[in-house]
Amino acid sequence: MNVLKLVARNLLSRKGRFLFTLLGITIGMASFVALMSIGQNMRNEVTAQAYSLGGNFVIVPDDLCVFNQIGIITGDAISERLDFAEFEKIAAIEGLDVIPHLTRRMMIYNPTAGAQQPTTVTGILPAETKTFRNWDMYAGEYFSSQDHEAIIIGQGIMNRFDLGVGDELEVRRGEMFTVVGILASTSSNDDTNVFMPLSVAQRVFDREGSVSYMSATVDDMARFDYFYASIHSVANNVNVATNEQLLGAVLTIIGSVNVTLQAVAGVALIAAAFGIINTMMTAVYERRREIGIMRAIGGRSSVIFRIFVIESGLYGLLGGILGIVVGIIVSVFAAPIIQGDEMLMGLEAGVNIDAVLIVSAIGFSLVISILSGLFPAWKASKLTPVEAIS
C-alpha cells in the first residue's frame, strides 16, 4: 500500500475543501510571519539608532515620558522644555562632552511627491556637533559659522526630496533655506534629518533660549554616578538616561505592541487549527467505508492513523510555505502603515526575514496541523471493520 499516493488522492479528490482549509492556515501563518518580520525590523532599527546617537547618555526634561523618549532614538521631535542656560552649566562639568539639539517635526512640501511630508528639522551647534558625531560630507560644504542661514541634509532627505547642493527648501512658510551640504550616510536617523545652526532654528521656530534634549559622552563611563550627580547638582528639571536605559524602555513598549499583534495572529492560527480538525473529522465520517475495507484486508490501525496524520501535516507544510510567501508580500505593504504611526514614523519602514523565522514558521505551522489531526486520526484508527462498513 502506497501511503503517500493514497494521501494525495484523498486530498485532491475534494479540491474545494482542500483549498479552503489550506487557505485558513495560509492566512493565519501569513499574519504571523508579517507581524513577526515587521516587529523584528522595528527592534533592529531602534537598537541601531540607539547606538548611533554618538554619546553615552542623554539629558532630557525630567517629565519626559517614555513615548517622547522614542523620538530621541527615531530622530523625531520632542518638546523644547530645556533652557539653553542649563546646557551651559552642564557643559562646564570637567570630563563631560555635551551637545544640545532643538528638534521640530515640520510639514515640508516635497515637489517629487507633490505633497507636504513630515520631516524632522534639527538645530545644532555646527562645530561641536560635527566633532561629536564624527560627520563627513558627501557633497558641498559644512556650515561656515554658528549663525549660518543655511541647511545641511542627510542622504535620505536628498533622495526623498530630490535635492542637491544649491537647491532651496522652504522649512517654514516664508522661510527659504539653501542646501549648502549633504552629509555622508551614517546609517542612522541623521540621514533623514534637515540640520541648521541652533541659533537659526531657535529664531525660525520662535524658541529663543530653548533646546529639546542633549547628548553627552564622558571620558570614563565608570564614573557615570559622579557625572549623574554633578549634572543634577548644577541643572534643574533634567533627567539623565544611558542609551541602554533609553533603549530598554523603548523596546519594552515595542515588545508589548508586538505581543498584542502576535496574539491577534495567534487567534487566526487557532481558527485555522479548528478548520483542520473539522476537515479531518468530516473526512473520517465520509471515508468510513474505505477505512472498513482497509481494515478488512489487513490494514493496521497504525497505518490508518499515519495516513490521517500525514494528511493534516500536509495542510501545515503547504500552508506554512504559502503563508511565508503571502506574509512577506503583506509585510512589505503593511510596514509603512504600521511604522507610519506618529510614535514610530522616524524609523525606516521595512521587514526582517531570516532563515530562523522561515524555519520557525514552517515548523510552527506543521506542529499545529499535526496536533489538529491527532484526534481525527485516532478516531479513524479505532474504527473496526464492522463499524466502518455498517
TL;DR?
The protein contains 13 helices and twelve strands. The chain has 390 residues and is of the alpha+beta class. Strands 1, 3, 4, 5, 6, 7, 8, 9, 11 and 12 form a ten-stranded mixed beta sheet that branches.
Give a verbal description of the structure:
The protein is α+β, with helices and mostly antiparallel strands. It has two domains: 3-47 and 250-389, no CATH class; 82-236, no CATH class. It has helices spanning 3-12, 15-50, 66-74, 84-91, 126-133, 155-161, 198-204, 224-234, 243-286, 288-296, 301-338, 355-381, 385-389, and strands spanning 57-61, 82-83, 96-110, 115-124, 137-140, 151-153, 168-172, 175-183, 193-197, 210-211, 213-218, 238-242. The strands form two sheets. Strands 1, 3, 4, 5, 6, 7, 8, 9, 11 and 12 form a ten-stranded mixed beta sheet that branches. A two-stranded antiparallel ribbon has the order 2-10. The chain starts with a helix and ends with a helix. Residues 340-346 have low confidence and may be disordered.
Order of helices and strands: HHEHEHEEHEEHEEEHEEHEHHHHH
Helix content: 55-70%
Round the mean pLDDT to the nearest integer and report it.
80
Distance between the termini: 24 Å
In what range is the share of β-strand residues? 15-25%
Strand pairing plus helix content: what structural class? alpha+beta
Number of strands: 12
- Main sheet makeup: 10 strands, mixed
Radius of gyration: 30 Å
Continuous helix count = 13
Principal-axis shape: elongated
Count of structural domains: 2
What are the low-pLDDT stretches, counting only 5+ consecutive residues below 50? Answer: 340-346
